[in-house]
Specification:
The complex is a heterodimer.
Chain A: E1 3-11, H1 16-26, E2 30-39, E3 42-50, H2 58-72, E4 74-80, H3 82-88
Antiparallel strand pairs in A: 1-3, 1-4, 2-3
Chain B: H1 4-16, E1 21-28, H2 38-52, H3 56-67, E2 71-78, H4 81-84, H5 92-109, E3 114-120, H6 127-142, E4 146-154, E5 158-160, H7 161-177, E6 189-193, E7 214-220, H8 223-231, H9 238-267, E8 271-275, E9 277-278, H10 288-295, H11 305-323, E10 332-333, H12 341-348, H13 354-360, E11 368-374, H14 379-396, E12 400-407, E13 415-417, E14 424-426, H15 436-439, E15 444-445
Parallel strand pairs in B: 1-2, 2-3, 3-4, 4-6, 7-8, 9-10, 11-12
Antiparallel strand pairs in B: 1-7, 4-5, 5-15, 6-12, 13-14
Classes of the chains: A alpha+beta, B alpha/beta.
């Protein structure tokens, strides 16, 4: 399984999750886990997704999500899981 | 599974605390390029570099995208050129032509620096070593991306004082030839004692002759991350402080190890080492001096500075070794003056002198680094400064280095601009008492007693 972490940070508004999920569904990317917090109107979400069967390359995924983020007025990043697991797990 | 807090913490380190991978350095052996014909040698060297390193920059960029972490520099280190050119280069100018070839190759593959315009003369100089050393001023003034280093001593061999004397003159000549750019040539030249074969950092990187055909070495960074972490334990005892540094160094180094392995795999080149370093940049918040001040000093240079640096350096290593399967290079905290805003502030406040910096180099990686001194400093005084630093390395069995810039036309207190990662520096005062008779003795300082371990 190829796990990627997607983070969305920005001002809360209607449809942020919908927009990201629609894009992921179009790319055949499966969502494994979602967690989110809203502090003082600020939206902070993390998704763990499986990109094994994705129809996009990792590079395309990163730039597409950046574009979706710009359209929605939030910041969206996609990073391979390893940078987090190496840093926080032995 | 990874949780939201952990993801936030990592991304905060990258976005707000300047966590980055400072350099991926591809070491390339040029031994198979050797020829006794200069034109043939130049052609071989150009072809070898542009072939082996053709994907280096693109690979670095792809890894940056995959993990969302900046990889600031992609660089190349080469087999010491005095060895490679020994057969073909009969004059210093022959060596200069090789430097220009390397510069062209660096531009072709788009790396910002290439190290290895070097000679290893810790016991004596061959004719080729001497020619290369004499060519350094011209080579550094006619090229943009070539970095040079000379190893003049080691714990095993002692110090070649003939080379130390010559390098005082070479540094002054390099300053003169690049005087229209604040003597920047000297910022690309470093003198070593106990130089490591696998250092990924410039200006002192070279691909040692003990290495294989090619190798990937990675230098990590992250002074801002350490500073933020220890700010959270302000006032706590040394045990807590050291534990915090260690944990943070572990996290930083794990990122370096990940990137190093990925780069090695993608480039199909063996992974060499991760250099466990805290390397500052001129950016605010990316400063080793800030860490020392957070530990409890008003300014770097205050009494207690050497002890604070010693514990910092030691715990960076203790955390780092657990995180990487192979460590090497210089590994430790760097204390360059011009590349660290906190160091610059300390000099300007009158808290930090060359003599205090010299003491600090006894307990951290490398040595007197990126220090601007008055342009009218004599060659023998520069050689004296080098000799002191080399002696510290030789006796303490550690790497020490001198990268000092006598800035032509500038005096104490003037500001010198090097630009980019090299930063800017106030010109620092140097003791003007003479050491000429000492430097003029010639010959070699014998190896210290504790080198005889067999």
């Amino acid at each position: 399984m190829n796990k990627t972490i997607i983070t969305v940070i920005g001002k809360d508004r209607v449809g942020i999750i919908a927009k990201v999920c629609t894009y992921l569904a179009e790319c055949n990317i499966n969502i494994l886990d979602i967690s989110q917090t809203i502090v003082n109107g600020y939206f902070n979400m993390m998704m763990i997704v499986d990109t094994t069967n994705s129809c996009k390359s990792f590079d395309e995924l990163v730039s597409d999500l950046e574009r979706v983020g710009m359209e929605t007025g939030v910041s969206i990043k996609a990073q391979h899981e390893d940078i987090f697991s190496k840093m926080h797990r032995l | 599974m990874i949780n939201l807090n952990e993801v936030e913490q990592t991304n905060r380190m990258i976005e707000q605390e300047s966590l980055d991978v400072r350099t991926i350095t591809l070491g390339i052996s040029l031994l198979d390029c050797i020829s006794n014909r200069l034109d043939e040698l130049n052609k071989n060297v150009y072809n070898k570099i542009t072939t082996v390193a053709k994907d280096l920059v693109a690979t670095g960029a792809a890894i940056e995208r995959k993990y969302g972490i900046p990889i600031v520099n992609k660089r190349i280190s080469l087999t010491p050129i005095s060895i490679i050119g020994a057969s073909a280069c009969k004059t210093p100018d022959d060596f200069v032509s090789l430097a220009q070839t390397i510069d062209r190759a660096a531009k072709e593959v788009d790396v910002n620096f290439v190290g290895g315009y070097s000679a290893l003369v810790s016991k004596g100089m061959t004719t080729a070593d001497l020619n290369l050393i004499k060519s350094i001023p011209k080579a550094l003034s006619l090229t943009e991306r070539v970095c040079s280093s000379v190893n003049v001593g080691s714990t095993k061999t002692g110090i070649d004082m003939d080379a130390v004397k010559l390098l005082g003159e070479v540094i002054l000549e390099t300053a003169e030839l690049t005087k229209d750019q604040d003597s920047i040539g000297c910022a690309k030249f470093v003198v070593f004692c106990n130089a490591p074969d696998d250092n990924p950092f410039m200006a002192g990187a070279f691909h040692g002759i003990t290495e294989g055909d090619s190798v990937i070495n990675v230098g990590v960074s992250g002074p801002g991350v350490v500073k933020t972490a220890i700010a959270k334990v302000r006032g706590a005892d040394f045990g807590t402080l050291c534990e915090t540094i260690k944990k943070t160094a572990f996290q930083i180094t794990r990122v370096g190890q990940l990137v190093a392995q990925e780069a090695a795999e993608r480039l199909n080149v063996p992974f060499g080492i991760v250099d466990l370093s805290l390397a500052p940049t001129p950016a605010v918040g990316d400063s080793v001096a800030d860490i020392l001040e957070e530990i409890g000093l008003e300014y770097v240079g205050a009494p207690g500075t050497t002890a604070a640096l010693a514990l910092l350096n030691d715990h960076v290593k203790k955390g780092g070794v657990m995180a990487s399967s192979y460590v090497g290079g210089l590994s430790g905290a760097f204390i360059p003056v011009s590349e660290d805003q906190g160091m610059i502030n300390a000099v300007q406040a009158g808290a930090l002198t060359i003599e205090k910096l010299e003491a600090m180099t006894c307990v951290c990686s490398v040595g007197l680094d990126m220090i601007a001194i008055p342009g009218d400093t004599t060659a023998s005084t520069i050689s004296g400064i080098i000799a002191d630093e080399m002696a510290i390395g030789m006796i303490n069995q550690k790497t020490t280095a001198v990268r000092i810039i006598p800035v032509k036309g500038k005096k104490v207190g003037d500001i010198v601009e090097f630009g980019g990662l090299l930063g800017y520096a106030p010109v620092m005062p140097v003791s003007n008492f003479s050491c000429e008779a000492f430097i003029n003795r010639g010959g070699r300082i014998p190896a210290p007693i504790h080198s005889f371990k067999n």
